[in-house]
Amino acid sequence: MTQANKTQQTNDAPNSMTKPDQKTQPISADVIKAFTPKGKLRASINLGNPILAGKDSATGAPVGVSVDLARAFAIRLGVELELVVFDAAGKSVDAVTNEQADIGFFAIDPLRGEGINFTAAYILIEGSYLVHADSPLKSNDDVDVSGTSVVVGKGSAYDLFLTRELKNAKLFRADTSPQVVDYYVQGKFDVAAGVKQQLEMDAQRIGSLRLLPGRFMVIQQAMGCPKSRGDRAAAVLSDFVEEMKVNQFVAQALARHQIKGASVAPARV
Prior knowledge:
Blueprint: E1 5-9, H1 29-35, E2 41-46, E3 54-55, E4 62-63, H2 65-77, E5 81-86, H3 89-97, E6 103-107, E7 116-118, E8 123-132, E9 149-153, H4 157-165, E10 170-174, H5 180-187, E11 191-195, H6 196-206, E12 209-211, E13 217-226, H7 231-246, H8 249-256, E14 262-264
Parallel strand pairs: 2-5, 2-6, 9-10, 9-11
Antiparallel strand pairs: 1-5, 3-4, 6-13, 7-13, 8-11, 8-12, 8-13, 8-14
């Protein structure tokens, strides 16, 4: 596993975070053990997606919607939380797949699903294309053309999706999603692909860039755990996510962290 930053967390929620409903049915000891083989809940946190998590400007500690959900799930289990922090989605996925973390927060993808049991989505995020201001490309349909170069973050949801979907354009990969636009500008590529919010911030920072209208995909962000933890553990995690959507925990977390460009996913039918 790529070197990760680890942050210890107690199971006390901060005052600004709504605690999960304590009336929920208790979780059996064997399921708790399945989630905590090392004695605490290790949550893989990806700082490469600003909608999910980032660093507190004052303390440098990880903060965000995924951190709040990890803390709430640790409270539900009644265990201590350890955050295992990465700078890219692919590294965070590998940590859970290889059982070096117990839960994680990822875009649902069939390739990732080979080693991870996903919940239903808890938020939906738009994936967009960014081009130079003077680019001849006017719409998303213009991108998949022979000779067009598209930059993505290595191992990101956009990388996995576009690897399957693009038939003519050629993909180039930056090491992490936050590095995509700088890599794109320096390499004189045609298109950058990523989280709409991140691309908007980078376009404002750099200038002379514009987003193509609309979106090329909707990313379903979910929680997940290693498949080896069993169906009962996966069901408990899935039920937790549904509760957090229905009781407005996710919506409140998005508002608290001032996240734009994401919406709470519909409840599971």
